[in-house]
């Protein structure tokens, strides 16, 4: 009897001593902490609790097996408390889980139109294979969101199931981490959102278990901190997520009303939030605003492409379900081609007729007419000619031209037909001498003293002839008296 008691298997030890359901637990499962736990304090506290249980079996028949399990616990603590070893161990776990997740997804969810029941079966199978579904739920939801092109709308808000899961998960976090109102009111609001979004009961249980196992981690998340400081922004975030995926947003949206109740908001606060749904957040930087605008434009393009793909798929299915239409179209095209060939062979219709293009007609240029002269407007001072300018139209004859030249040489008067000028006395022009004679030249009078030239007189300042002794003197300069001021 004592020998039989000493030969316990590992599965029995894990189940009876530590209360584990799996036969080969991970380091996290051995210590009883959530998968991918990063809090070293929680890891050490869980290790001390497990060692306390094992030391009860260290003295007695199970000493050897208890020491082996204690060694495993020590190895798990050394790996999970070392950052490099923990990172490598987590990567190995994630690679193994990914293979299981992909294989089970192809088994349960590769259907024409996936249903929520198929998702529930898929996650239940992953959980039975040892995959930490509760810790990998955000990653699994991203996988679903990337493959949710053909998901049917679910719930009151007409949202695809992956988007409904995201909203329901946020509501669970707010309901369990925010202490606004009583516990019964928060639980009722969470159940109401589950019913409105048509989340299956199995998925809802997994969500609640995920948040409950890591409550100390979720209480420090961004959405909880933001809800404690600015609850309106969290409500605005949920409203924008619903609007982005085509759901109903408004004062009568029961999902937003339940979320407002969890955040401690009233009807007026909800109406104020709904006014900002279409606006971009002002407090963001220019880079983040540009990124958000680019993301919105990309979402619109993707939505248009998705609608086009769906329309194309529906058209393909419609044609594939009616093969007689293709046969009729093929027969019609064949008959039309035969008729056209007969018409071309008989010469009735010539599709490739040679057409000659006429040469362009070149017009010879005619005589260019000079532009008409501008006519002066009567009374316009800008177009009137100055009074001393005489145009050629006013001088028809040669005599008038000569008279005009003489008038310019002698004065400023205008020439008359008689050769005289108005307001200017006639000038006597000396007659030329007869031919063969030279005109007499007048010689200036000689100086009686020296007998040369004309007498040169020097005048003084007063206008009188200057004396010989005053010729060398410079004239006196009289000061000019200033004129009297008026």
Description of the structure:
The longest helix has 35 residues, at 286-320. Helix 10 runs antiparallel to helix 15 (254-263). Among the domains are: 1-81, no CATH class; 95-150, no CATH class; 153-279, no CATH class. It has 19 helices and no strands. By secondary structure, the protein is mainly alpha-helical. It is 54% helix and 0% strand.
- Roughly how many Å is the radius of gyration? 58 Å
Tally of helical runs = 19
Overall geometry = elongated
Given helix and strand content, the structural type is mainly alpha
Determine the mean pLDDT: 76
Distance between the termini: 152 Å
> Which sheet architecture does the biggest sheet show?
none
pLDDT < 50 runs, ≥5 residues: none
Strand elements, count: 0
Instruction: Summarize the amount of helix as a percent range.
Output: 40-55%
What percentage of amino acids are in beta strands? Answer: under 5%
Give the SSE order as H and E letters.
HHHHHHHHHHHHHHHHHHH
What does the secondary structure layout of this molecule look like, with pairings?
Elements: H1 2-6, H2 10-16, H3 27-31, H4 40-55, H5 63-80, H6 83-108, H7 116-128, H8 137-146, H9 161-177, H10 183-197, H11 201-213, H12 215-218, H13 222-229, H14 231-244, H15 254-263, H16 267-274, H17 286-320, H18 323-346, H19 398-410
Helix pairs in contact: 4-5, 6-7, 8-9, 9-10, 9-11, 10-15, 13-14, 14-15, 14-16
Name the descriptors:
elongated, 19 helices, 54% helix, 486 residues, mainly alpha
């Amino acid at each position: 009897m004592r020998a039989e008691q000493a030969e316990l298997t590992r599965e029995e030890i894990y189940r009876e001593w530590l209360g584990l359901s799996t036969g080969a637990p991970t380091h996290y499962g051995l210590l009883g902490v959530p998968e991918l736990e990063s809090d070293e304090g929680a890891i050490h506290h869980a290790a001390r609790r497990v060692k306390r249980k094992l030391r009860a079996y260290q003295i007695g028949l199970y000493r050897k097996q208890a020491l082996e399990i204690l060694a495993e616990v020590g190895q798990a603590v050394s790996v999970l408390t070392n950052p490099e070893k923990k990172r490598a161990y987590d990567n190995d776990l994630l690679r193994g889980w990914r293979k299981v997740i992909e294989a089970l997804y192809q088994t349960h969810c590769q259907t024409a139109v996936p249903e929520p029941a198929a998702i529930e079966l898929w996650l239940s199978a992953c959980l039975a294979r040892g995959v930490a579904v509760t810790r990998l739920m955000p990653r699994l939801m991203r996988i679903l969101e990337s493959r949710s092109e053909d998901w049917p709308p679910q719930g009151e808000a007409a949202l695809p199931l992956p988007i409904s899961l995201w909203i329901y998960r946020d509501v669970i976090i707010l309901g369990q981490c925010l202490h606004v109102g009583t516990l019964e009111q928060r639980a009722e609001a969470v159940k109401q959102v589950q019913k409105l979004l048509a989340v299956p009961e199995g998925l809802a249980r997994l969500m609640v278990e995920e948040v409950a196992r890591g409550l100390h981690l979720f209480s420090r998340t961004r959405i909880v901190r933001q809800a404690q400081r600015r609850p309106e922004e969290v409500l605005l975030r949920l409203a924008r997520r619903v609007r982005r995926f085509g759901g109903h947003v408004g004062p009568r949206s029961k999902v937003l009303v339940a979320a407002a109740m969890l955040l401690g908001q009233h009807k007026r606060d909800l109406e104020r939030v709904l006014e900002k749904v279409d606006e971009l957040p002002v407090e963001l930087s220019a880079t983040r605003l540009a990124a958000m605008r680019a993301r919105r434009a990309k979402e619109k393009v993707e939505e248009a492409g998705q609608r086009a793909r769906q329309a194309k798929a529906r058209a393909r299915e419609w044609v594939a379900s009616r093969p007689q239409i293709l046969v009729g179209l093929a027969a019609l095209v064949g008959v039309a081609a035969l008729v056209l060939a007969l018409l071309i062979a008989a010469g009735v219709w010539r599709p490739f007729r040679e057409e000659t293009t006429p040469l362009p007609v070149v017009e010879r240029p005619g005589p260019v007419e000079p532009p008409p002269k501008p006519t002066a407007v009567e009374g316009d001072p800008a177009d009137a000619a100055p009074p001393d300018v005489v145009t050629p139209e006013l001088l028809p004859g040669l005599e008038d031209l000569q008279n005009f030249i003489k008038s310019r040489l002698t004065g400023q008067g205008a020439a008359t037909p008689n050769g005289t000028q108005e307001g200017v006395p006639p000038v006597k022009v000396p007659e030329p001498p007869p031919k063969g004679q030279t005109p007499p030249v007048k010689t200036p009078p000689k100086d009686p003293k020296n007998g040369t030239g004309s007498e040169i007189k020097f005048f003084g300042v007063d206008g009188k002839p200057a004396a010989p002794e005053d010729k060398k003197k410079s004239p006196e300069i009289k000061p000019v008296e200033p004129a009297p001021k008026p």
